[in-house]
């Protein structure tokens, strides 16, 4: 009986049911409890930038460090669904599920249905991908648009058609408008396709019918569509380069933390990397079929490698040579590429039991991180600190926020932006004279800076009302001033 059941599951018609189960699990893990945590600073910035007119949205995003696509999505949905935490995060959750499906499609093209199902299953339970699919930021969008771009490139190289060429131009444009890191993946894939086109020219003496050239032309349309915002980002890059950036230098400890953040387990990261290497080697040197089929497979593998490793390599080089920009969540588009290559490796090494073994090992190694992500991991507790303030405040009280970068988060939960002042530095605090009923909320500061802020605000008696989780020694520290009598 058991063998009969296994035989039924191994039949091709079980594939759609398995995919449906994977998508259902993916949706459950991402959509449940979207409002479990408060919005954090960056999510509140997305809300603030998307709450005004469309012109306000474009101007505010242009003054920041990323393209506007995610903000445009929020701008479109908020009038219909509101701006609750769940409503703001729901598009990211849906995009996270879409990414799982797109990865299945890409894996099927690369190495068959089993590879697609394993890659999709690995992404469905990835704690890293789940976390950023529950955040009102552009990271799930970056992953989904990146995989749509990768899928279209693979289809154009495998069997081009006007539909897939149009899809590639559109997906490439959306990818570029999702996040600045898309430039790395887009450029890496574009260079590989250009190399293929040159190879076609040398091999046949003509570019006529070159699939790689068709891919390059479609990507050129995407690049041209992105040109206006590229000019904006170039201007912003000059401004950022003149100031210190918050990302640390990518030393060995940083890279280990980054690998753990992506995989949820350092052991799993190295297993996946080894499987990916095996998959690449098998596809490059062990592929059967005609020379034309072998050439196409090798090109598909090369594109996947460029998409996967290009962003991390380019960002690392920029970080070492110019300024640190390498960060785990910015690699959310590249991360599924590693899962795809690892799934291909598992399928090549052990077609019958490899995929099941790898998935079981992934669950075992990442279960602690998965459980932590789903039930314990939190963001700065703005919801709680504002509730504390509202519980203890009196009419006419004045609230001062230090530092001002967190003003959107406080405004989101307080919903009365005129009732607080945001200051950026100690000198501004010194110019303020606290009196009875004045409040100070210190955010994201070291212990020394917190003490300096309190001393600068006023020497009179103060009492800490509450201290909630944030980042830094202060977290979110709320203090109430009572002048000595």
From TrEMBL:
InterPro entries: LipidA_mod_glycosyltrf_83 (IPR050297), RgtA/B/C-like (IPR038731). GO terms for molecular function: pentosyltransferase activity. It is a multi-pass membrane protein. One of its GO terms (biological process) is lipopolysaccharide biosynthetic process. One of its GO terms (cellular component) is plasma membrane. It is found in: Cell membrane. The chain crosses the membrane at residues 86-104, 116-132, 138-157, 169-199, 211-233, 269-288, 300-318. Keywords: Cell membrane, Glycosyltransferase, Membrane, Transferase, Transmembrane, Transmembrane helix. Residues 67-229 form the Glycosyltransferase RgtA/B/C/D-like domain. It comes from the Bacteria. This is Glycosyltransferase family 39 protein. It comes from Roseibium aggregatum.
């Amino acid at each position: 009986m058991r063998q009969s059941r296994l035989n039924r599951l191994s039949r091709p018609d079980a594939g759609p049911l398995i995919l449906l189960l994977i998508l259902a699990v993916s949706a459950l893990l991402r959509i449940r409890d979207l409002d479990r945590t408060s919005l954090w600073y960056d999510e509140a910035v997305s809300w603030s930038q998307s709450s005004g007119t469309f012109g306000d949205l474009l101007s505010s995003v242009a003054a920041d460090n990323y393209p506007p696509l995610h903000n445009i999505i929020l701008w479109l949905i908020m009038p219909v669904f509101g701006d609750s935490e769940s409503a703001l995060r729901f598009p990211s959750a849906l995009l996270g599920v879409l990414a799982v499906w797109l990865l299945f499609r890409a894996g099927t093209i690369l190495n068959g249905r089993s590879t697609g199902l394993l890659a999709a299953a690995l992404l469905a339970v990835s704690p890293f991908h789940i976390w950023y699919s529950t955040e009102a930021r552009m990271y799930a969008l970056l992953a989904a648009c990146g995989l749509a771009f990768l899928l279209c490139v693979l289809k154009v190289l495998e069997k081009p058609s006007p539909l897939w060429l149009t899809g590639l131009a559109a997906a490439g444009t959306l990818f570029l408008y999702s996040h600045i890191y898309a430039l790395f993946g887009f450029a890496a894939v574009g260079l590989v396709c250009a190399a293929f086109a040159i190879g076609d020219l040398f091999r046949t003496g003509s570019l006529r019918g070159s699939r790689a050239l068709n891919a390059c032309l479609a990507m050129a349309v995407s690049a041209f569509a992105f040109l206006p915002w590229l000019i904006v980002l170039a201007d912003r890059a000059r401004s950022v380069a003149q100031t210190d950036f918050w990302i640390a230098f990518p030393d060995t400890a940083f890279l280990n933390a980054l690998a753990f953040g992506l995989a949820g387990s350092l052991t799993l990261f190295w297993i996946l990397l080894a499987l990916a290497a095996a998959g690449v080697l098998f596809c490059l040197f062990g592929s059967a079929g005609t020379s034309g089929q072998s050439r196409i497979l090798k090109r598909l593998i090369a594109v996947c490698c460029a998409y996967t490793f290009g962003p991390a390599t380019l960002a690392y080089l920029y970080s070492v040579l110019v300024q640190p920009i390498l960060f785990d969540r910015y690699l959310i588009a590249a991360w599924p590429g590693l899962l795809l290559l690892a799934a291909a490796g598992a399928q090549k090494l052990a077609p019958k039991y490899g995929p099941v073994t790898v998935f079981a090992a992934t669950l075992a190694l990442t279960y602690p991180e998965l459980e932590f992500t789903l039930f314990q991991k939190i963001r700065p507790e703005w919801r709680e600190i504002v509730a504390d303030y509202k519980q203890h405040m009196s009419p006419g009280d004045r609230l001062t926020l230090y530092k001002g970068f967190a003003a959107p988060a406080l405004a989101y939960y307080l919903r009365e932006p005129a009732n607080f002042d945001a200051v950026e530095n100690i000198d501004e605090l010194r110019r303020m004279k606290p009196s009875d009923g004045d409040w100070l909320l210190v955010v994201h500061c070291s212990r020394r800076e917190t003490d300096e802020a309190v001393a600068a605000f006023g020497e009179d008696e103060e009492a800490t009302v509450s201290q909630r989780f944030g980042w830094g020694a202060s977290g979110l520290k709320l203090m109430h001033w009572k002048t000595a009598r």
